[in-house]
Amino acid sequence: MKFTIIREELLKPLYQVNTTLSGKPKLPILANILLKINNQILLLITTDLEIEIIAKILITENSENGSITVSARKFYDICRGLPKNSIIKIRLNNNKLIIKSNKSTFILSTLPSSDFPNLDNWNGNFKCQIAEIYLKDLIESTQFSMASNDIRYYLNGMLIEITNNEIRSITTDGHRLAFSYVNIDQNLHSHSIIIPRKSISELIRLLNDSNNMILIESNNNNIRFHINNLIFTSKLIDGQFPDYHRILSNKSNKILTACREELKKAFIRSAILSNNKFQGSKLTLNNNQLKITSNNFEDDTSEEVIEVNYPYEMLEINFNINYIIDVLNILKCKDIKCFFNNANSSIKIESAYNATSSYIIMPIRI
């Protein structure tokens, strides 16, 4: 195996595939990166047995086909440490990877490529396409309410649901729920999968605000995203996601309309003195005003009063204030609508205009 490449052509894809590697791999070879040359296409492949990332690079100089695995961290650190625009010459000799650039030479130990596990040999029975910016927005709009290390393993991920010409993302940790959707110009049969939390966190790092189309393939066990010159593959969670339709369809008889930014600033101030354990605050709605009252175990108290549009009878309800702040940080609209029923019912928060995302938060007892 032999190839020559400019440092900048190698560094970014090398960084992208390295993000999935953990500090303590289950097997020694999982700390390695697979380098594979075939017909002047260089593949950089990493995996942790749950996620696999492949980067493709066109090699314009003469190369020799072959494959080997080498320490991903050492290989990346060496390439990053070389001067900008350096020409890097890499070859395999007697099971040692030799890296040369200018007057620098590095010789790394290797492990055979035949020992490297991969998720490559499967066929997708479902395919669709979505613009990169839409996929990024779907994930960013809902990822914050995924559960973490919940015994209900199906909550530790994101439900992706495809129905007709809609792609939806849904997450919940049992206390709150986030829902978002985009329309796509494809009429697809119904399909739903649950992508693990870690995979979502790694996938979002690879996405940009571009209109490039991303091909998505999946089967019963895996999902794959073709993102420009990257292929991101993840195992799926096998489980039954909660019926979110029932939660979203609850009718509300009271609607509050307010400026999102003003609300957010008031809630952030109120959070300073809210109970550290539960982050609970009392919301009192009456006469087109919202009063936010917070206190803690040290007997500190805060009160915020905001003018809102709320022409209904008085309502008092308690919420985890950080959950509301999370939603107000995600929404980018000028005004929002909050839908209420009573003190024991959840609140639904949406943009006041053309809402494509909905957020449900359960009340708490203080």
UniProtKB/TrEMBL annotation:
Its main location: cytoplasm. Keywords: Cytoplasm, DNA replication, DNA-binding, DNA-directed DNA polymerase, Nucleotidyltransferase, Transferase. Residues 1-120 form the DNA polymerase III beta sliding clamp N-terminal domain. It is found in: Cytoplasm. It comes from the Bacteria. One of its GO terms (cellular component) is DNA polymerase III complex. GO terms for molecular function: 3'-5' exonuclease activity; DNA binding; DNA-directed DNA polymerase activity. Coiled coil: none annotated. Residues 131-243 form the DNA polymerase III beta sliding clamp central domain. Forms a ring-shaped head-to-tail homodimer around DNA. This is Beta sliding clamp. It comes from Candidatus Aschnera chinzeii.
